[in-house]
Structure formats: C-alpha cells, structure tokens
C-alpha cells in the first residue's frame, strides 16, 4: 500500500513539474493571441501539442475565419486540461480543434487514461458553452513513433467512438490520410521524423477544412 502511494505521489510530482515547465510558454502564447484577438468576431481555436504549435500558417489557411493557435510543444492531454482556461475558454470559441494523445502514448499512458482526460476537457468546454463545436484530431502516424502504431490506432478508435456518441463533437481522421495503403508516407516529415513539413500540413488542412462550421 505504501509503495503504491509512493508511486502515485512520484507521478503526481512529475506532472506538476512538467506543467510548471509550460508556464512561460503558455504566457507567451496567450500574450500573442490576446494582442490579435478581436472579441467581436467568432473564434476558432486550434490547440494541443507541437503538431499544432508548428502549424504556422493556420490563419492563412482559413482566411475567412478568426483562428487562434494555442498549441504548446511537448504537451499531453493533462497539460491542456490544466491550462484550458488560458488557452481555450477565455477566447469563447465557436469551434475548438484538439490534438492531444501523441505525446501521451509516447509517455506510456494507456489509451483509456488519455480518453478520460480528454473527456474532462470536453466537459469543461461544454460547461462554459454547451454549443461549442469540438473536433478531436486523431493521433498521427510518424517515422519516429511508428513502432507504437497499434497503441495510436487503439486511441483513435476510442476517439472516434466518443465523437459518435456526443453532440457537437466531431472526429478528424488524419491517420489513414498520411498512409499509402499500410505504409507510412515518409516524405511528409521533417528531419526529426516526428513533425510534419508543408505536405503533411496540406493533408491536415484538407481533412479538417470540412469541419469548420
């Protein structure tokens, strides 16, 4: 019993330390978005980990919408939950695109645990505004994490089922769009084998565009 408590305390301490490490980045992100946000216009927020953070031309891709990018690199679903007020809720978005789960799987979290955290995020967003559209972006395949593909696919199935059951929630599948049959399209990535180049983001754009409401 004491051993279990020690492990839980250790993991909790790690989580708190990780979230504290995001404080400065989150402040920088919110300061930038606060400076460009027009409160009188409806807002779409893209948030999540580095695959969102590194999508530099989001506003240019959706010129008819007010788009804010609040992605923060290296984040997991629990980090987004912690910073949800600053990164999402304060902007009163009509639609929120969420990309979390990629780093969670890499950190050996189970799909069920990740789904539970995402459900908490959804509940907080819905409590703030029940009619907010939420889009859960599937975990993407990548060169550096291809060996974990079975776990990513398991998570994606859970995300899709969640979206099917809930009103105002959509699921955006980028996994299969980045494959050629069963093989990964390796030309979609930069040198680190994890993050995407322009061709990768082109695929994301075409997958997500129909879900802009």
Describe, in plain words, how this protein is organized in 3D.
With 213 residues, the protein is α/β, with parallel strands linked by helices. The protein has a single domain, classed as Rossmann fold, CATH 3.40.50.1110. The chain has 10 helices and 7 strands. The strands form 2 sheets. A 5-stranded parallel β-sheet has the order 2-1-3-4-5. Strands 6-7 form a two-stranded antiparallel ribbon. It starts with a helix and ends in a 5-residue tail after the last helix. Residues 53-203 form the SGNH hydrolase-type esterase domain. It comes from Croceivirga radicis.
| CATH C-level category | Alpha Beta
Low-confidence stretches: 5-17
**What is the structural class?**
alpha/beta
Number of domains: 1
Label the CATH architecture.
3-Layer(aba) Sandwich
The residue-averaged pLDDT reads: 93
Q: Rg to the nearest angstrom?
A: 17 Å
Helix content: 40-55%
CATH superfamily: SGNH hydrolase
Q: What is the tally of beta strands?
A: 7
* Order of helical and strand elements: HHEHHEHHEHHEHEEEH
Termini distance? 50 Å
- Main-sheet strand order equals 2-1-3-4-5
CATH fold title: Rossmann fold
Q: How big a fraction of the residues is strand?
A: 5-15%
Task: Give the overall shape, derived from the CA principal axes.
Answer: globular
Descriptive labels:
single chain; 213 residues; alpha/beta; Rossmann fold; two-stranded antiparallel sheet; 10 helices; 7 strands
Write the layout of secondary structure elements.
Elements: H1 2-21, H2 23-36, E1 43-48, H3 50-53, H4 58-61, E2 66-69, H5 77-82, H6 84-87, E3 95-99, H7 102-106, H8 111-128, E4 133-137, H9 149-165, E5 169-172, E6 179-180, E7 183-184, H10 198-208
Parallel strand pairs: 1-2, 1-3, 3-4, 4-5
Antiparallel strand pairs: 6-7
Helix pairs in contact: 8-9
């Amino acid at each position: 019993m004491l051993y279990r408590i020690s492990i839980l305390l250790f993991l909790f301490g790690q989580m708190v330390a990780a979230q504290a490490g995001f404080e400065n980045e989150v402040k920088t992100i919110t300061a930038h978005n606060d400076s460009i946000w027009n409160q009188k216009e409806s807002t779409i927020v893209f948030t999540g980990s580095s695959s969102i953070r590194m999508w530099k031309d989001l506003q240019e891709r959706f010129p008819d919408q007010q788009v804010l990018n609040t992605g923060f690199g290296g984040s997991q679903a629990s980090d987004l939950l912690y910073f949800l007020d600053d990164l999402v809720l304060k902007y009163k978005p009509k639609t929120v695109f969420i990309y979390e789960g990629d780093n969670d799987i890499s950190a050996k979290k189970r799909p069920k645990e990740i789904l539970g955290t995402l459900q908490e995020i959804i509940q907080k967003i819905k409590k703030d505004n029940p009619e907010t559209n939420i889009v859960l972006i599937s975990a993407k395949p990548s060169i550096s994490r291809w060996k974990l593909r079975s776990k990513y696919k398991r998570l994606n199935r859970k995300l899709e089922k969640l979206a099917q059951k809930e009103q105002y929630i959509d699921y955006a599948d980028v996994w299969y769009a980045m494959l050629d049959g069963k093989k990964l399209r390796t030309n979609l990535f930069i040198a680190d084998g994890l993050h995407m180049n322009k061709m990768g983001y082109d695929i994301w754009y075409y997958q997500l565009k129909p879900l802009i409401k």
